[in-house]
Amino acid sequence: MVTSLIPTSWRQDRSPGSTEIDLRPYPSTPTPSIYSILDSYGPFPIQSLMIGICSDGFPFMLGLDNPRSGSILVVGENTQEKSQILRTMCISACLINRPEDVSLCVITNKPHQYAELSKYPNCQAIMSPYERAAGEMIIEFSSIVEQRRSGRERGESLMLLIDDFHSIDSILRDFSVYLNLKSLVTNGPTSGVWPIISIEPGDVHSSKGQLLRSFGTYIFEKVDNDHAYFPDNESFKTKDLVHEPNFNIIVGGRLVPISNLLI
After folding, report:
1. What is the CATH number of the domain that holds 59?
2. Non-local CB neighbours of 34 within 8 Å, separated by 6+ positions
3. Which residues constitute the domain of residue 17?
4. Are 163 and 110 in contact (CB under 8 A)?
5. Segment 114-153, tens digit of pLDDT
6. 3-state secondary structure labels for all residues of the chain
7. Which of 133, 147, 165, 183 is within CB 3.0–4.6 Å of 152 for a Cys-Cys bond?
């Protein structure tokens, strides 16, 4: 089993009584491709995927059979970088897992960026957020969660990726779709259904803030001024310890720096 969101760059100080995490920079190296990392460190257990690469060069993995990390929110201003994180998750999931173990659907207003996924049988659909079927898909995924919570056999892990939360505003005007997405974000991972959504920093404090606070894991693009992310929160002072990588993954209140991968 892959333990959910194990940051391989956390190097513990083993001296007696110490609980500090050593985040000293590692030597910078050229950014590898997702394929070279999977070849170098695989094979990986089923129901796992890769999010990025830690500063020590090891992959940062997510175990889809362990719901502790909760739903995943990718926050950043750089649209390309956010999409790259989502694509890394998708492609690694397809390369590591059989369709009967992990399948996925993508809602995106940039379908050309996900065209490569269509060659993998794990990918069930790539659709525009402006299609009516996108709202129906959210409701269907939420329905699967409810069926599994009421005793239906769990089956494969399911991933629902929404690239750009703002792009689904029109379908969220249907209150039924909104309620089903909220239920999916809150309850999905415990039933093997994983919402993974990207969002602009300005939307973090939108009227849908209650929904966004239901996510268990946050992947933040590294910025010079974190005020856009945490305007009134003093609990992230450890950001000063973060070094070169582009993204900070917050799991259980800790910051874990990762770099993106080439695809």
Report:
1. 3.40.50.300
2. 50, 88, 91, 92, 95, 261, 262, 263
3. 11-259
4. yes
5. 999 999 999 999 999 998 899 999 999 999 999 999 887 7
6. CCCCCECCCCEECCCCCCCCEECCCCCCCCCCEHHHHHHHHCCCCCCEEEEEEECCCCEEEEECCCHHHCCEEEECCCHHHHHHHHHHHHHHHHHHCCCCCEEEEEEECCHHHHHHHHHCCCEEEEECCCCHHHHHHHHHHHHHHHHHHCCCCCCCEEEEEEECHHHHHHHHCCHHHHHHHHHHHHHCHHHCEEEEEEECHHHHHCCCHHHHCCCCEEEEECCCCHHHCCCCCCCCHHHHHCCCCCEEEEECCEEEEEECCEC
7. 147
Instruction: Compute the average pLDDT of residues 77-87.
Output: 90
Structural domain includes residue 118 = yes
Crossing angle of helices 34-41/79-96, nearest 10°?
40
Q: How far apart are CA 256 and CA 247, in angstroms?
A: 8
Please indicate, yes or no, if residue 159 is contained in any of the structural domains: yes
Q: Is residue 1 a part of any domain in this protein?
A: no
162 belongs to a structural domain: yes
Number of domains observed in the structure of the chain: 1
Q: pLDDT tens-digit profile of 189-232? A: 999 999 999 998 877 666 566 777 788 899 988 766 555 454 44
Helix axes 175-187, 132-149, angle to 10 degrees: 40
